[in-house]
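Lab manual, section 2.4: Encoding a predicted structure.

Procedure: take the sequence of the chain (495 residues), apply the prediction step described in section 2.3, and record the output as C-alpha cells. A sample record is shown.
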Amino acid sequence: MRGALHCAPFLNFSVKYSISILLIFLLLFFSCREEGELKENQAPNTTFSLDEINVSGDRRLNSIVRLSWYGTDQDGYVKGYEISTDQTNWTYTTSQDSVFQFSISAGSDTVDIDLYARAIDNNDLRDPTPSYLRIPIKNTPPVASFSEDLTLPDTCFLVATTEWLATDLDGVETITEVLISLNGKAWYPLNKSQNIISIVPEDFNATDTTSAFIYYDSRKTPAPQTIEGLVLNDTNRIYLKAIDQAGSESMIDTSNVFYMKSKSNDLLVVGGVDAAHGDYETIMDNVNLDFDFLNLTIDNGAYQPLLWNITFSLQLSFYDKLFFYSDETAFTNPYTNLKLMLIEFAAASLQEYANSGGKYLISTSFDWDTNIEGFRGVLPIESLSAKNYGDARLYGDSLVLPEDMAYPELSTSAFVLTGVGVFNIDSADTEVFYQGQLSDRNFRFPWPDTEIVASARRLNGNLNQIFFLMQLYELDGDPAKLDALFHQIFNVEFN
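Recorded output:
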C-alpha cells in the first residue's frame, strides 16, 4: 500500500508531462503544415469612378475628358495602373486620374471611345478583368478671332497689320484651315503657323477694288497668292474663320472697319512734331514737292505703327524718298509697352530703307544725355558731344555752314536757339554735312566741343542719308535759303 501511494503521484506527473509534449508537437506540426500551404497571391481589382456615361446627341462629351479610377488588393497593395483603348497597347501610370484628349477621325462628327483600366499589385500581378468605360464624344467646332492687342486703327496708310488667333478644344492640330475674306469676297487660306498678317494693295492706282498682297510676320516678301476685294481710299473689313478636320466651321469674326489710304507720290513725309507740320508743308509747296503725309502725332499717336519693323518698314518700301522729323517726345506703344522717341521706334526701319536704296532726310532733336545705343551707327551718328550741349547756342547773327557749297548757309530768325544738338561721327562711312557757329551760354564764348549739327552717308557715291540733330523749321532766318536746302536735297541730290 505504501508503495502504491508513492507511485501514483509519479505516474500522474508523467502522464501530464507526456500530454503536454504531445500538444506542443501537434501544434508545431500543424503550424509547419500551415506555412507550407500558404494561399496564392490574389489579383487586384480595378474600378472606374463612373460606371457608365449615358449621354447622346448634343449632350455627348467634347474630346477632352477628365476621368478617375481606383484599385484594391486583398493581400497586398496596388502600386500602379495601366490604361488602354484596345487592350493591346497599355500605358503605365501611378495616378488615379487624368485628362484625356481623344481624337476624332477626319470627316466624322462623333465617336465612341473604349477605355480600359487595370491595377497592378506589389507582386506585378495585373487585374485579369480590367474595368471598362464607353465614352461618347462629339467634335467641337474651332474658335477664330482677331487679337484685341493688335487691332486695326480706323485709318491704315498703305498697310493694314493685324493678328489672328484660332483654338479648338479638340486640339489645335485638328484645325485644317484658317481663312480670311476682304469685304465678304472670296475666302483665302492663311499660313496657319503665321499669326501676324499685313495686307497691302497690289495696285495703288486702282480706282475701285483691287487685289491685295499678304505679308506674314516681319517678312518683306509677300505670299504668292493675292486676295481680292480691297477698296482704296474707302472703308474695308476683314472676315476670319477656321475649319477643323471634321468639317466644322467656327463662327465668323470681323475686324474693325478701317479706311485704306493709298499712295499718290514718290516722296513720303512722316511728321512727329505738331508745331512743324504747317512750316514744312509751306516749304514743300514753295519748291514744288508733291508728297504723301503720315502724321504720327495726331490723336496722341493713334496712327503710329504698333509693329514698326513690319508696318513702317513696308510703308517705307513703297517710296523713293523720305522726310522724317521728330523730337524728344516719348510715346508708349500699347502693343509692346515700350516707351521711346519716334526716332528710336523708326531706326531699324530707316536703316533697312537706306540699305535698300531709299533716300532720307531726318530732322530731329533730343536731350544731350539721351541714350543713343538704340540707333548709334544705324543713323549717321557715333556719339553725342562730351559737353552738355544744353548750353550750346546759335544766335541770330551766327550761321549753320555747309561742307558742300552747293548747299545754302542757314540761320535762325530767333534771337537765340538753345540746346543745339551737336555730335560726333564715324569718319569711315559718314561725312560732315553742316557745322554751326555756336556759342557757350557764358557770355557768348565759342562752343568748346564738336560743332557738327548734320551728317551724311553715301550709297554708290551718291548721298542717300542726311541727318540733322536740329529742328530745320527753326532755321528760318532766311526762308528762301531753307527752301533752297529742300530743293537741293529732294529735287537735285535725291533725283
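Check your result against the sample. Helices lie at 2-36, 277-286, 308-317, 342-355, 479-493.
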